Automatic annotation (TrEMBL):
Residues 5-227 form the ABC transporter domain. GO terms for molecular function: ATP binding; ATP hydrolysis activity. Signal peptide: none annotated. The keyword Disulfide bond does not apply. Keywords: ATP-binding, Nucleotide-binding, Transport. It comes from Amycolatopsis alkalitolerans. The lineage of its organism: Bacteria, Bacillati, Actinomycetota, Actinomycetes, Pseudonocardiales. This is ABC transporter ATP-binding protein.
């Protein structure tokens, strides 16, 4: 199967500063992938490279089996702050989309605007943050891409508008069979719509895989204090904390936890993400689940 986004040792440098370096990643096509990581991890740079807005300094990058090019009809991109033109009306945005995109779906774009209750004569500069986000998403969907890239599209909008945006994204992904890569700091958003997860820290992929598989292979262990290095070889310690008498470990394993001294609990997505974001940089590269 063709990958939606595949990179090998990808890097982007501005002068002496590397915004992204040594990034190796493979996101399968047909997935709604959440991209999460701390500020400065390289998420926006990666998405701009994938959209063809930037050229890599080193490494290789393929999107849907091809090198990305600016304005590619196969790629839709909603950048940070859901950019729209404040002086243009909603209707003028749709007409601009039709002029710029050879695969533009005018009927779907108009239907979506009507369903959202947006006035085609309203200038974008007078829309709420949530409405601008929905307009930007409509432009991305109306292009009829095969891959939709979204970089923190709803970080600045209220919870209700964010929920409505994500619902619209889910519906579009299902209806048009889109591959989606969504960057967000809000793990609850990713948990709501994503079936694939990538945690990026310092340009390196700490963990990537099917969300259900990741949750099924991680457990939180609580019990008498012990050295994490003493655990069986099949239990990879992701994070550890200790008191004088107790240890709490988040481990990755595909095997049952048989030690009766451990209290074993499932791991939520937020705890999983935070554990990998805070894992020591020297930790060996982690396996990617296909």
């Amino acid at each position: 199967m063709t990958s939606a986004l595949e990179t090998q040792a990808l890097g982007k440098r501005y002068g002496r500063h590397w915004a992204l370096s040594g990034c190796t990643l493979d996101i399968p096509a047909g997935r709604v992938a959440g991209l999460v990581g701390p500020n400065g991890a390289g998420k926006s740079t990666l998405l701009n490279l994938a959209a063809g807005q930037l050229s890599p300094t080193e490494g290789s990058l393929q999107v849907l089996g091809e090198r990305p090019a600016p304005g590619s009809a196969k790629i839709g991109f909603v950048a940070q702050d859901t950019p729209t033109y404040g002086g243009l009306t909603v209707g003028e945005h749709l007409r601009l989309g039709a002029r710029l995109n050879p695969r533009w779906d005018a009927a779907a774009a108009r239907a979506r605007i009507e369903r959202l209750g947006l006035d085609p004569g309203q200038r974008a500069g007078r829309l709420s943050g949530g409405q601008r986000a929905q307009l930007a998403l409509t432009l991305g969907i109306g292009k009829r891409p095969e891959l939709l890239l979204l970089d923190e599209p709803v970080a600045a909008v209220d919870p209700l508008a964010r929920r409505e945006f994500l619902q619209g994204l889910m519906e579009a992904a299902a209806e048009y069979e889109l591959s989606v890569v969504l960057s967000s700091h809000l793990v609850t958003d990713l948990e709501r719509i994503c079936d694939y997860l990538v945690v990026l820290v310092d340009s390196r992929v700490r963990i990537a895989g099917d969300v259900d598989d990741l949750l099924a292979t991680h457990r939180l262990l609580t019990g008498p204090r012990r050295d994490p290095d003493a655990l069986p070889a099949g239990q990879q310690v992701v994070s550890a904390s200790h008191t004088d008498r107790q240890s709490t470990l988040l481990v990755r394993t595909g095997e049952p936890i048989l030690d009766p001294q451990w209290t074993v609990e499932p791991v939520g997505l937020e705890d999983l993400v935070l554990a990998y974001m805070s894992a020591p940089p020297a930790r060996p590269a982690l396996e990617v689940l296909k």
